[in-house]
Design brief:
about 750 residues, alpha+beta, nine-stranded antiparallel sheet, single chain, six-stranded mixed sheet
């Protein structure tokens, strides 16, 4: 589209000047009151309600669910038991891990592993704070935290029987291969213990060191090794590969018992330093208040106005969820465990991050971050490149300094290309281009290095077939179409980075690979279809068919994968027969039967409108593709339905896995009224805003969004103006946004 191309040139020119200006300050609004951490804890949202701070390593939360898919975060809203409170969690993932260093206060009984019951009405959660009453154990529990230290406050009904269990055998999803590897434990003094806890799971080599300090001395310690009580546990230092549990008893008192738990990814000395630096005192209420203040400042990155309380709560809860991952993964002294399994000390200004759910988050979370926290977006890009320097390949789903190899392709290059396009890249772009190129080819050296570990999942044959044949043969490897389409986009991203670095040869080579998506276009079915090694399309062909990790599509089917060409929309539209044909295909997608065929269909296919599946990321851009047709109003209808029906104020209010903030970032951007269809092209498509007004501090001052005549029945855009000028099409540039100004959107109940 000519207008789009014009906007691209404006974006490049505008960024050069706008980034030199300082944003204006504005008073903080009380946005924390609208956040409900229980949203997403039901259905398959897989979020947790516990205490944490923005992008913090400690995520202290109750573990109510240990086995199965809904144990991914350790918590599910339907549960009524609590196994304990552990200090690390994953937010909204489809695979579970972590759940490190679990404590449970209790009174009464002689169980080696007591389990608490609770009533939902006693639970309370706000950003940075969680509370619950353990009904059967007679304890009121409150939790808060700093970045690296969890802080517990226990109030016992029975002042004569105050005990705490430290469970060093606890892991999440042991039925999915997560297991204890070893424990190193030491009693430091009568109120402090420390150690290193090692597990093997989704993160194949996971080590977390800890220091636990009680506000009172322990009067007695009971130690259990594989369920057997030892009598010589006092002053014990031990190494064991077995399940360790400790019961600590405290003297009679009606005062609350306080517990501080510092974590380190490196060693116990790091945990001790983290506690000394972040939480030297014992003022629980002060730490809770500090957490609330930190969260409120973070949530004020966007101030909205709306008369709809549902929208207000959805919006700020979603914004909260976008700030939990990735999280900082290093000690206060800068030391961290690198992707090369060595201890590094961060250079000045560098922070190591982990838990990048990149296949999900490249689509909306990272683009959102470039708007509301561009410096952090740049830092996270640097962390990905640093991961390449340590491990010789860009991370895909890095977790606790491990490559997990989870999901499709090499999506880190999307994050990097978007930073480049928005002039937010820091560092040597030749190194960035090299990182992208080396991560896009089959690496036999790493296949050998990662042999017999879960990190081997990073090295698949999809990239080998792509470079050998120009497509991925469906009869050679599963998920061939999904990989083929996404690798075409990722190769385009590498081309953009290389071009900006001045490496024209590399850019040209990868620009050619970016067109490989055309090989999967089937003119007969008008869908993206598996291609066999002999060049023929797969037969028989059922576009509704899904088989998890076994079919030609990742977590979906042909309907859900036939619109992923974000980097080449104009040529894609020409290939399929024009704008009217795109509109027809989108109409079919949203109106056909929602039946999914296949006995092993992916559980990720949720939130269906026809065959559009909002509960999983491959569909997230599709409603906005109507902006490339003559009927953008149809996209507004779909967006209105999605935001009103698939995002609610209830625990089941997220229609699929939250995926480390992606589901929520989609809502934040869409509720503001726009979305970036292609990270790497700094242009936003206007959709259907849910807010009445928004104020976003940006480098050039403030970007205002004013929505006129907004109402549930007024779901269509009548006119859009940028700084008083009517937009010819429903697109505007990132450069226009960051230099500040006003986007006015007038709504109507009548579509064109």
């Amino acid at each position: 589209m000519k207008t789009k191309l014009f906007l691209l040139s404006v974006a490049v020119m505008g960024l050069a000047t706008s980034c030199q200006q300082k944003p204006e300050s504005q008073p903080l609004a009380d946005e924390i009151q609208y956040v409900d951490p229980f949203i997403g804890t039901g259905f398959h949202g897989h979020t947790f309600p516990g205490a944490t701070r923005p992008y913090a390593m400690v995520q202290l939360s109750p573990d109510t669910h240990i086995m199965g898919w809904d144990a991914s975060s350790g918590y599910h809203y339907d549960d009524h038991q609590i196994y304990g409170f552990s200090h690390t969690h994953l937010s909204g993932t489809g695979i579970g891990d972590l759940g490190d260093i679990m404590l449970l206060p209790f009174s009464g009984g002689d169980s080696i592993k007591p389990v608490a019951t609770f009533k939902k009405e006693t639970e309370k959660a706000t950003p940075g704070y969680y509370a619950v009453r353990l009904e059967n154990l007679g304890v009121n529990v409150e939790l808060t935290s700093t970045d690296r230290v969890g802080f517990h406050r226990y109030t016992f009904d029975n002042p004569k029987d105050r005990r705490v269990m430290l469970d060093l055998g606890h892991v999440l999803q042991p039925n999915w291969g997560h297991k204890l590897v070893s424990n190193d434990y030491q009693l430091v003094n009568d109120s402090t213990v420390e150690g290193t806890f090692k597990t093997q799971g989704w993160a194949h080599f996971h080590s977390v060191s800890y220091r636990v300090t009680f506000s009172e001395p322990m009067t007695k310690i009971y130690q259990y090794i594989d369920g057997k009580l030892r009598s010589d546990s006092l002053f014990l230092k031990l190494h064991s590969e077995k399940d360790l549990k400790f019961h600590y008893r405290f003297k009679e008192s009606d005062k609350p018992l306080l517990v501080k738990v510092a974590l380190s990814p490196v060693d116990v000395e790091g945990a001790e330093k983290n506690m000394e630096a972040e939480l030297p005192g014992w003022d629980f209420d002060q730490v809770r208040a500090e957490s609330a203040d930190i969260w409120n400042k973070a949530l004020n990155k966007i101030q909205i106005e709306t008369n709809d309380p549902v929208v207000k709560k959805n919006f700020y809860t979603a914004l909260y969820h976008t700030m939990i991952a990735p999280f900082a993964y290093q000690d206060v002294d800068g030391r961290y465990w690198g992707m090369d399994k060595k201890v590094h000390t961060a250079a000045s200004g560098y922070t190591n991050y982990t838990a990048f759910s990149l296949w999900d988050t490249f689509r909306a979370l990272h683009p959102l971050m470039t708007i509301i926290n561009s410096s952090l977006a740049s830092d996270m890009g640097n962390a990905l490149v640093q991961g390449y320097m340590e491990g010789t390949i860009l991370p895909k789903w890095p977790l606790a300094s491990n490559y997990t190899g989870c999901m499709v392709g090499y999506p880190a290059v999307s994050v990097l290309a978007d930073l480049v396009a928005k002039d937010l890249a820091k560092g040597d772009l030749n190194l960035w281009a090299e990182a992208g190129a080396r991560s896009s080819v089959y690496r036999a050296d790493l296949a050998e290095k990662f042999k017999d570990t879960r990190e081997l999942d990073l090295i698949t044959r999809h990239v080998y077939y792509k470079d050998k044949f120009g497509f991925v043969p469906a009869d050679s490897i599963p998920e061939s179409v999904s990989w083929g389409l996404e690798m075409a986009y990722y190769d385009w991203c590498i081309a953009q980075i290389a071009a900006k670095a001045g490496n024209d040869t590399l850019a040209k080579a990868y620009q050619e690979k970016a067109a490989y998506y055309k090989r999967y276009l089937d003119p007969e079915t008008k869908l993206m279809r598996g291609v066999m090694a002999d060049g023929s399309f797969r037969t028989p062909f059922n576009p509704r068919y899904s088989s998890h990790m076994k079919s030609d599509y990742t977590e979906g089917n042909a309907f859900q994968w036939s619109f992923f060409v974000p980097h080449d929309m104009d040529n894609f539209i020409a290939e399929i027969g024009g704008k009217k044909e795109l509109e027809t295909r989108l109409d079919t997608l949203f109106t056909t039967s929602s039946q999914i065929d296949g006995a092993e269909a992916s559980g990720d296919i949720t939130g269906l409108i026809g065959q559009y599946a909002h509960g999983n990321e491959p569909s997230h851009h599709m409603a906005y593709l109507y902006n490339w047709t003559d009927a953008p109003w149809k996209g507004a209808e779909r967006l209105d339905f999605i935001m009103r029906n698939f995002y609610t104020n209830q625990p089941d209010g997220i229609i699929g896995n939250e995926d480390c903030g992606q589901m929520s970032a989609w809502y934040v951007l869409s509720a503001l009224g726009f979305y970036q269809v292609c990270p790497g092209i700094p242009v936003y498509a206007i959709g259907r805003p849910m807010i009445d007004k928004a104020t976003i501090p940006v480098s050039g001052g403030k970007f205002l969004i004013i929505v006129k005549n907004n109402a549930p029945e007024n779901k269509y855009v009548k006119e859009a103006k940028l700084n008083g000028k009517v937009l010819d099409t429903l697109f505007f540039s990132h450069a226009d946004l960051v230099k500040g100004g006003t986007l006015e959107i007038e709504m109507t109940a009548i579509h064109p």
